[in-house]
Write a structure and sequence with these properties.
This protein has about 120 residues and is mostly helical. It is built from 6 helices and 2 strands.
Length: about 120
């Protein structure tokens, strides 16, 4: 997995990955939460799947240059407004839910390897 840094972005820490299928964000969230990518991309509203989608939306927005629509496609053909809602949910959950915060921090630590590639 070789990340590519796009020159010209306002924030050089934002990465876009060459192979969308092997995206480290999806793989790390899937591995940490113990669920498959198919389950994440499914239409199911089971809490653990929704939480995984929320985390993926946040970290794809933070670490990549993907648009909201592109992020929606990654998490199972969802609309950009769903991604906006998930990003808002992340802020609320991160602030008030201790277990969610620990999970997000654990994933962020694992993704920091890719963030510092330059």
């Amino acid at each position: 997995m070789n990340p590519i840094i796009y020159v010209g972005l306002d924030n050089y820490n934002r990465l876009a990955f060459l192979n969308r299928q092997e995206d480290p964000v999806l793989n790390i969230v899937s591995e940490v939460m113990g669920i498959s990518l198919d389950q994440i991309k499914s239409k199911s509203r089971i809490h653990i799947y929704v939480t995984a989608r929320c985390l993926i939306c946040h970290f794809l927005r933070e670490y990549t240059s993907l648009t909201l629509s592109a992020i929606g496609k990654v998490i199972g053909d969802r609309d950009h407004s769903t991604v906006i809602y998930q990003l808002d949910q992340f802020k609320n959950l991160y602030q008030y839910d201790y277990e969610f915060k620990l999970l997000a921090d654990k994933i962020n630590d694992r993704l920091s390897v890719y963030k510092n590639v330059a």
